[in-house]
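Question:
Write out your own:
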Amino acid sequence: MKGLGAAGEDMAVKLLSSKGFEIIERNFSLRMGEIDIVAKDGLDLVFIEVKTRASKEFGEPFEAVSLLKQKKIYRMAEAYLAKNPFDGRAIRFDVVSILLGPERTDIEHIKNAF
C-alpha cells in the first residue's frame, strides 16, 4: 500500500525534524533496494527504516524489519557511503514504527534498532 507508506514517511520526517534531525535524503534507492530516510543526528549519520501499518493484525510495525531486511539496509548503507563519504562520528540504524489506527496514531522512534 504505497499511500500508507508515503504517509508514514511524511510523519516520520516531521517527528525526526522536531527532534533536531537534519534530513539529508528520502527514498535513496538502487536496484538492490531502498533506504527510507538518511539523516544527521548531531554528528551521527542515521539510516532510518519507516514501517507503517493500519492494524496490528500481523504484529507491531517494527517487527516487519526482519534480519533479511536489516542485511539489505546494511548493504544499501554501504552503497550510500561509497557515493557519499561521511566523516562524522558514528553511523546508526533506527526504525520509526507507525500504527495508523482509526481513532489514534502511535508513532515510535527506535534508536540503534539494529
Summary: The two ends are 25 Å apart (CA to CA).
